[in-house]
Write a structure and sequence with these properties.
Layout (H helix, E strand, L loop, with lengths): L1 E3 L2 H11 L11 E3 L4 E3 L5 E3 L14 E5 L3 E5 L4 E6 L3 E5 L2 E14 L5 E5 L12 E11 L5 E6 L14 E6 L13 E2 L4 E14 L12
Parallel strand pairs: 1-4
Antiparallel strand pairs: 2-3, 3-4, 5-8, 6-10, 7-9, 8-9, 9-15, 10-13, 11-12, 11-15, 12-13, 13-14
Amino acid sequence: MKVNLDFRTLKYLLGKASGGGNGSGTNLRYEASTREVENTAGTNAILPIATGNYPGLLQRSERSIFKPTLVDLNGNGSYEFVDQGSFLERMGNFVFYYINLANIFHVGEPSNLLAITGLRFSSDNLPSVGLNVGGFTGVIDQDFYSVIARTQGGNNIPNLTSNNDIIFEFLDEKTNAIGQGSRNKTFKAVKFFNGRINVSGWVPIGSGSTDYVNNF
């Protein structure tokens, strides 16, 4: 026999197992391989994992390989690269992305926004989110002072196909403002010769997404 437990039920049972509450204890034991709690009566209790449709008892934690795509968004060119261990890890309603692209070469004549596409979870209706840029090398025919990576979020950036697309902005001079297009320029028509891009950071899941979890 298996039953789903909510937090209050589990708290009550664990209290009895340790001798608290009304009772002498039930000797609950957690089996990590099955994610079940067993007691001396031989019955089991499943600890439900949170999903988009059911809040569950535990936060959803997921680590998986993430295959990003580097594109000349709606442009005439494309890019070849080697993915060196990109991955994502989700904790609750936040997703950590680690993107590591190497040996980047342009193909044809890029003409539009440089973007990374393919983020797994939706960030619709959220503000733009900045990510850390650990490396951005091999760009030819363009000079810049600093680089900013961010999702579109709630900003209407022309030609982006998804709020999840990561674009790159740059400054060619010192400034007292950063982000949200303030004196920034978007990277367009970018050509690479043996380039590298390393981007990482946390991106929230939008509340309108089916993957959004209300309770933990």
